[in-house]
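Run log // design_07
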């Protein structure tokens, strides 16, 4: 069985979604998925048919301080949704549903 990944970015300073944010997904240093968030701040399918393993999810958020946010994820089988909440001077993430 394989894994899939979706994401979204919320600009907590603006109180809404962050559109046009570049997000990349890497496995073993190779780019396996990328996209820009839509008007709702979402990328519904950043990766699909992913083999279990270690991945890096890289966000380039609209923040004057956080220029690049990298999360390492251990994906097994099933669907994963990993949002990023960002403001000019803070960020947080969690495993969504």
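design_07 sequence
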């Amino acid at each position: 069985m394989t894994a899939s990944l979706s994401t979204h970015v919320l600009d907590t300073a603006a109180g809404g979604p962050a559109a046009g944010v570049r997000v990349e997904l890497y496995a073993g240093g190779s780019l396996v998925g990328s996209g820009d968030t839509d008007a709702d701040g979402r990328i519904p399918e950043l990766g699909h048919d992913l083999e279990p393993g270690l991945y890096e999810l890289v966000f380039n958020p609209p923040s004057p301080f956080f220029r690049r946010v990298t999360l390492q994820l251990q994906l097994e089988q099933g669907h994963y949704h990993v949002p990023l909440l960002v403001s000019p001077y803070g960020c947080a993430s969690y495993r969504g549903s």
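Strands lie at 3-11, 16-17, 22-27, 30-36, 42-50, 53-60, 69-75, 78-81, 84-87, 90-93.
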